[in-house]
Amino acid sequence: MTLTDLAGHWVGGFQVGNRWVFIKTCFKAKKKIKGTLDIPEKGIFDVDVTQIKIENSHIHFELTENADVLTFDGQVENNVISGTLTQAGEDSPFCLARVVSVDPATFEKYFGTYQLESGRCIVFGWRLNTLVYLEGRRIVQVYPLSETRGFSERGETITFSEKGVFVHREDTEISGTKATPYKEEEVTFSNKVTLSGTLTLPLTEGLHPAVVLIHGSGSESREGYRFLADHLARQGIAALRYDKRGTGSSAGNWHRSTLEDLAEDALAGVHFLQNHKRINPEKIGLVGTSQGGWVVPIAASRTEDVAFIVLISGACVSPKNQELYRVEHELRYCGFSPAGVGLRVLIYRLELLIAKVFRAIQKVIPLSTVIPDSVVFSLYLDWDHDPVPVLEKVSCPVLAIFGELDKLVPVKQSAAAMEKAFKDRNKDYTIKIFPKGNHALLKSEVGVWSEIPRLEKKEFVPGYYDLISNWILERATK
């Protein structure tokens, strides 16, 4: 076995008494092998392993945890490392399997809701660029081991087939079948470009209230909203989720789109739903997350066709101020000194100022024709966009949701600005701040985005999805 053979990610765990503990390792091979180890249960993340030795098919490495040393001795065979972990003089068996790189499209045919024979109900999808399933409030990451098999951070080996799914853990294997708690339709609609999406419809008869789900920033596809659409459909609310411009099967280019362009895309979705035979045309709302918190009010302020809006982690400050807030807190979390944070924030301010200058020049000289997509979005985003005057024009019911610990959005400032914008102007608005919630409404300790991979459990805050569906249904029945 060579250093190159070992390079990559490996996942598995070890047994301590009756308890199984998840671990993940990453080996990198250049002139010499290096490695890191994660043990989420112990709060260990990206800790360097030492004493790495490879001889034929045998591998040895160690990890120092405070005063203890964890020693791993194992054999490598068929992309599996198995052996003995020694800690404080006690031996435990461990096993690691190699993680493979697969195209997300490989697993898409298996996405959806599964009912396991044990009574568990899990929903598979792609979130934050990883394969996961949702069970209750918890998001569980699944690491691909092949094109039909994965390993979850709960210690389950999951095998997909055309007939269903098999979940194996220790000596128990549970089968599951794909459930159909709602109907899904593949749809397209247009706003200068053709957008592709999925309409999730309740199985009950009659006209249903509906929502169009609006993305956050970046390259967002319909997959980001699979779990919310699943929940809403089960509660009797139809949901249209679509691929953002230039992602998935949608045409166009989100890098070269303004907030107004994206708002018109959302309204195109509303108009599509108004003509659907299963949708109540007078009960169609918009749900926007993060950047969608700027997009949705723009759309709702332009028409009376939007019956209500839901804003999730939407900043009620300009994009410039929101980004400065995010960067400052990320730098602090990463351990930069106050002086270091101040210097880097100052540099970022200068970068944003340059972006504004280029944006002004773009109105005269088409700089976007020679600037790559990776930076051209800064010419199309209005960094000084003020969401308050737009919110003041929104007359339909509004639900605004924040996570208390969100370090991407100034929550208290945004909530206060919304309160001021709606007070005496909007008869029906609700602002809810969930304790312990981060930007994704996951239960958190710090709230910065880079903390998410370090969360031992990724769970939505209690009541998050229920608040959205209950609030919508109350407005839909009036």
Quick summary of this structure?
The protein is α+β, with helices and mostly antiparallel strands and 478 residues long. It is built from eleven helices and 26 strands. The strands form three sheets. A nine-stranded antiparallel β-sheet has the order 4-3-2-1-9-8-7-6-5. An eight-stranded antiparallel β-barrel has the order 10-11-12-13-14-15-16-17.
Name the CATH homologous superfamily of the largest domain.
Alpha/Beta hydrolase fold, catalytic domain
Question: What is the structural class?
Answer: alpha+beta
Total individual domains: 4
Summarize the biggest pleated sheet. Answer: 9 strands, antiparallel
Distance between the termini: 68 Å
Layout of helices and strands:
Elements: H1 3-6, E1 8-16, E2 19-29, E3 33-39, E4 44-48, E5 50-55, E6 58-65, E7 68-77, E8 80-87, E9 90-98, H2 104-108, E10 112-116, E11 121-127, E12 130-135, E13 138-144, E14 149-152, E15 157-160, E16 165-169, E17 172-178, E18 182-191, E19 193-202, E20 208-214, H3 226-234, E21 238-242, H4 259-274, E22 279-289, H5 292-300, E23 309-312, H6 319-333, H7 338-362, H8 373-380, H9 387-391, E24 398-403, H10 411-422, E25 429-434, E26 458-459, H11 464-476
Parallel strand pairs: 20-21, 20-22, 22-23, 23-24, 24-25
Antiparallel strand pairs: 1-2, 1-9, 2-3, 3-4, 5-6, 6-7, 7-8, 8-9, 10-11, 10-17, 11-12, 12-13, 13-14, 13-26, 14-15, 15-16, 16-17, 18-19, 19-21
